[in-house]
Amino acid sequence: MSFPFKLEGRAALYGTYAAIAAAAFAVAFTAAAAANAFDSGGQQSAFDSLNRSRPLVALGSERQCERYSGLPARWRDDPKAGMVHLHGGNFILGSKLGYEDERPAGDGKTRVAGFWIDQTDVTNAQFAAFVQATSYVSDAERQGGAVVFHTPTREEMNARDLAWWSWVKGAAWNHPAGPGSNLDGRLNQPVTMITQADALAYAHWLGRDLPTEAEWEYAGKAGHEGADLDTAPRDAHGKPSANYWQGVFPVLNTNEDGHVGLAPVGCYAANDFRLYDMIGNAWEWTKDVYTGPHQPHTNGDTAAVAPPGRRHDTPMVIKGGSFLCSRDYCVRYRAASREQQEADLPASHIGFRTVLRDAS
C-alpha cells in the first residue's frame, strides 16, 4: 500500500534515519538512570532500573527535535521502542488550585501499578507506518472532515462564537489543512485529527493501550507535588518550557516559546521521568470516560462546529493541554488539567501516547 500523502525522498531516508538514530541513541544511559534512582525528596524514583542501557529518545532542544525522524530507535524491532518504564506508586490525583473538576476526591491518594509509556506523543511517522502496515482508514477520513483551528479575523469573531474552530471537509491526520495538504515537514509532529478509536487501533496494533487518567497524571507529575505544578511552565531563565499560547487568544500569539502551532515532539526538556511534551503541544487521549462537574466550555466546544445532526459520542478525558492553552483561555497547561472530548470527534489539537502495563 502506498502512503496517502507525498513521501518523495522520505521513505528512502527512513533506513538512514534509523541507522543514525540507532548509533546516536546506543549510549547506555546508565548514568542517567542512576541519577534518577531517587527523586528530589529522597524517595525511590518511579523511573527505575528497567530503563538502564535502553536507547532512550535523545530530544529536548530545537535542534534535536527538528532533526528527529519521528521514529524511535529500533522501531518495530523492539516492542517497547521509544518507551520508558515507571514502577508503581502512590500520588495525589488532581489539584486543589485548578478548576472544580480537578479537585481531588477525598485525600486524592491514588495508586498505580507499573507500566511502560511512550516518551513522546505518537508521531505522524509512527501512525503512517501503522496505516501502511494495516491499511487502516481513520474516522476523520470516514466522516469526511475534522475540526481545525485557525486564527480568526475580526469579522469572523463578530459573526459567530468559537470563530477559531471550523469543520474542514477533507481534513484528516494525513491532510492537516484539508485537501491538498500533506505531511511534508510534519513527520516528527504529533499525529492529530484522530479519534479515541483511532488511537486505540494504533495502540492495539503494538500490543499496547491508552493510559488511564491516573496513569497519565502520575507520569505527567513525574514524582512532584505542590503549587509549581499549577503554574505556566517556564525554565530557570523564565522562558516557556512547553508549547502553549503566549499573547491574546485567539488573535495574537507572541511566539515566545518558539512555536505558533504544533511543534515537533521533544523540542523542550523532558520531565524527571524522561517524558517529553506532557504539558502543551497536543492534548492526549486517555481511556477514561469523563465524569465530574461539567463546566461551561469557555475554552471552546469543538462539537459546536461539527456538521448539524451529527451524533455526539461519549465524552472522554483528555490531558495535558495544547498549543492553544493560554492564561486568558483554557489555562490547562498543567499535569492535573483535564478536559472532555467526544470520543469520535477528530480535532487538530488532540494526539495521544500509549502504555504497556506490567503483568499482574
From TrEMBL:
Residues 1-33 form the signal peptide. The keyword Signal applies. It comes from the Bacteria. InterPro entries: CTDL_fold, Sulfatase_Mod_Factor_Kinase, SUMF_dom, SUMF_sf. The keyword Flavoprotein does not apply. GO terms for molecular function: formylglycine-generating oxidase activity. Residues 81-355 form the Sulfatase-modifying factor enzyme-like domain. Keywords: Signal. Gene3D superfamilies: paralog of FGE (formylglycine-generating enzyme). PANTHER family: FORMYLGLYCINE-GENERATING ENZYME (PTHR23150:SF19), SULFATASE MODIFYING FACTOR 1, 2 (PTHR23150). This is Formylglycine-generating enzyme, required for sulfatase activity, contains SUMF1/FGE domain. It comes from Paraburkholderia susongensis.
